Amino acid sequence: MRFPYCQHRHSSPDPKAPALEIQGLGVSYPSEEKFVLRDIDISVSAGSAMALVGPNGAGKSTLFKAICGLLPVRTGNIRVFGHPLGACHHRVVYLPQRSEIDWHFPISVLDLVVMGRYVYLGWFNRPQKKDIEIASHSLKEMNVLDLADRQISKLSGGQQQRVLIARALAQNADLLLLDEPLNAVDESTRQTVSEVLHKIKAQGKTVIVATHYYDQEESRYDKAIYLKDGKKIGG
Amino acid sequence: MALLHYLTDPFQYAFIQRAVIAAVIIGLLCAALGTFVVLRRMAVVGHALTHSALPGLVIAYLLGGSLFAGALIATVLTALGIGFLARDESVYEDTLVGMIPNIMFAFGILLISTTRSFRDLFSMLFGNILGVTQGDLHLIMLIAAVSLIVLFLFYKELKLFTVDPDYAQTIGMPVKALHYGILLFLSFTVVVGIQAVGTVLTNALLVIPVAAARLLTDRLGRMIALSCFFAVLSAIGGIYLSYYFGSASGASIVIFCSLIFAVVWLYKFIQKSMW
């Protein structure tokens, strides 16, 4: 028996629709009048890699939070794989900046990565052997399988980032929203993340990466979108 | 065999048997829920709720109604009130948490001061585990059983919701309901805890065993198990203390619990300095 967290969140993606289509989007934080994002139009075709570029405070994280349903949409609309927001959320994974997680919580790395499977388990079901295998496999892909039993507070910045990406991989989503995955990590993590992003794209998945380092990474993306002061600039 | 006598002597009294059973169950409940309260950084909210129960207790006492119901209504209203007032952030939540329990506490004392019955105030403030009746015990068992079953059923969700609430929300978990659910069960637990150690000291049972357990392990499951073990030890140890030294039962339980924390802390401190 399965009891999904949200009944209507498990529609199958429409194969012909773009991975992400945003029209006239306006977002503000709850109980605030001022819009953080205004008049945003974006279309990202399935299987592509897009960079989201802009200075701090431009609204990159806000855009991601709106796409994955953490912030309410005030104007316009967002469609993911042809469905309205929230209809296929197991297909979307948002990788927050590392600071938004309680790294002192008493669990192991493997436990944290297994959480990527919860959306498939729903209420009451405990993770099965298969879920643990998938989580271990994701850790292996990020070259951190040896950390599986480590307490999450004992990770370096780069290791934290790898573990979070492993959790995103364990969810097996089709649209990945990565918020500054390369910010303040070591060179070898940067290497691994780049390789894995490449692999994800080769599997036909869609990746959107908020980044500070677009100049050095330009060749990895099919397209870039520039944000400034909550507005899209340029084409 | 003198030592054995020391251990078995108190148990010849039915009221002490009941007190021990009640204290053990309350300790288990406080420790299990307290783990999530501490990890969610809600220890001050627990403090606020325990103190806010007083006017509910007093009103129920004055009207001759159920003290349980009175305390429960007061704590639930406080929990919801803090949540509601903190919404628009015109007053910080920690300011509210610092204010409201004192207002509620003062209100409770004001009410009872009109009756001049300070003996009953004493047991409300500091608990009266030795006065637990058979009926109280059944109610305590019922609330503890329901709360522990709910904790067990939603363990996985509470874990994720605590470590990474944003991710929990993106996969469709009803995070607001989980938050209010924790507050509701915290209210139940507080009301049960008041029976044992009173409004002033209940928060100690929610926090101290968990703090001691946290020093010894960095796995959630083991942490809950250890907290429960410490809480049970405190409950039994405190009642022995109270029996042999004639000390107040609630305070004895809390002091016993604090001693466990002190020993664990010292152990960790010495272990660290040796390396």
Give a description of the structure.
The complex is a heterodimer of chains A (235) and B (275). Chain A is α/β, with parallel strands linked by helices and 235 residues long. Chain A has one domain (17-233): P-loop containing nucleotide triphosphate hydrolases (Rossmann fold), CATH 3.40.50.300. Helices cover 28% and strands 23% of the residues of chain A. Chain A has helices at residues 60-67, 109-114, 118-121, 129-141, 157-171, 187-202, 214-217, and strands at residues 20-27, 37-44, 49-53, 73-80, 83-84, 92-95, 175-179, 206-211, 223-228, 231-233. In chain A, the strands form two sheets. Chain A has a six-stranded mixed sheet, with helices on both faces. In chain A, strands 2-1-4-5 form a four-stranded antiparallel sheet. In chain A, helix 4 (129-141) crosses helix 5 (157-171) and helix 5 runs parallel beside helix 6. Chain A is globular and about 45 Å long. The model of chain A has no long low-confidence stretch (mean pLDDT 86). Chain B has 275 residues and is an all-alpha fold. Chain B has one domain (25-274): ABC transporter involved in vitamin B12 uptake, BtuC, CATH 1.10.3470. Chain B has twelve helices and no strands. At the A-B interface, strand 6 and helix 3 of A face helix 8 and helix 9 of B.
Overall, the morphology of chain A is: globular
Helix fraction of chain B?
over 70%
Q: Assign a percent range to the helix content of chain A.
A: 25-40%
- Uncertain segments of chain B are none
CATH topology of chain B: ABC transporter involved in vitamin B12 uptake, BtuC
- Biggest sheet strand order of chain A reads 6-7-8-3-9-10
Structural class of chain B: mainly alpha
| Whole-number tally of structural domains of chain B | 1
Provide the domain count of chain A.
Answer: 1
Report the principal-axis shape of chain B: globular
The largest sheet of chain B, given as strand count, sense and whether it forms a barrel, is: none
CATH class of chain A: Alpha Beta
| Number of helical elements of chain B | 12
Number of helices of chain A: 7
Terminal CA distance of chain A: 48 Å
Uncertain ranges of chain A: none
Going by CATH, the architecture of chain B would be Orthogonal Bundle
CATH topology of chain A: Rossmann fold
The CATH architecture assignment of chain A turns out to be 3-Layer(aba) Sandwich
Strand content of chain A: 15-25%
